[in-house]
Amino acid sequence: MAAFERDALAGKLPVTLITGFLGSGKTTLIARLLRHPGMNRVAVVINEVGEIGIDHDLVTMSSENVSLLANGCLCCTVRTDLQDTLRELFGQRRAGQIPDFDRVVIETTGLADPAPVIQTLASDTMLGAQYRLDGVVTLVDAVNGAGQLREQPEAAKQAAVADLIVVSKEDLATPGQVAALVASLREINAHAAVRHSVMGEIEPAELVGLGLGSSRAGPGTLRFLGELEPAAAPAGAPGEGNGDGDGDGGAYLGGRLPNRHDPAIRTLSLRFDEPFDWRTFAAALDLLIGLRGTDLLRLKGIVNVEGEPVVVQGVQHVMHPAVKLDRWPSDDRRSRLVFITRRIEERTIRALFDAVGAVGATRV
Measured at the alpha carbon of residue 323, what is the angle toward residues 318 and 328, in degrees to the nearest 5? Predict the structure, then answer.
């Protein structure tokens, strides 16, 4: 990217999606966030303001569905659908009808599939011009989470698409339960960071900067791609294997996990030594999305397109616009892609890339 080219993501409002199964503690976390002084200039979109219990903090009602809190945070209730709410928020902000805000936090319902919300930001032209996805935060109950991941497809999918997983209610669980739950989460999504919270206590700063915020490469670029330096790996992190095996596990820091928990959902990381031309790469993705888009829970990576670094990300059938970086974020100039899938075999993805001439993939 030439120095004079405009940053494709500059000026877009970052959106953080907070999800989690029923009883995971989203309401408690949101209630604490709404009172945190670090939440000024943040608009929080929730499903039902009455559940949060913030009446004593209200300063004014700026509109029918937007409340201004004492700390400068805006609390907005979803009235029709999320697209209308986000459009209305941006319109009121631009018209000066509500105080300015710098980011948006969206709370989903416990049974919600987060994929349509992510897809909305990519497929709605107006929203995509004003907002960008900054990350998906998924809460998981330390007591009941293991059973929910095993028995509830929605819970497993919420964990699979997360950029950050927050383990809640640890005060009610044993250390063994927590350790087993984290191991299960690693099997489903080996690239998400894991944090811990009791009674919704978490710093707002931990929920931001999870996504790609600029087309100018920096330390956050590699974090977004799930590439941690070895020294930054959490203690006891999985992934110390040699990469051998049958291809059923996840990938983490160059290693693999035995997928004991849920054989349907898996993480697959591939690297390609040779550069792509964009048409070849796009043809491979189109084939994968056309044949198995429903089961492509999430994809993100950096692609060497004729020597230039291009970041791609998508959820199921919808790809976000590709972002060309101004430079490579590290000395590694290979294409690397992380697929989180449901019932898609590694050999299927390899075969699709081979079919369009994108050969030479190696497993991370």
Answer: 135
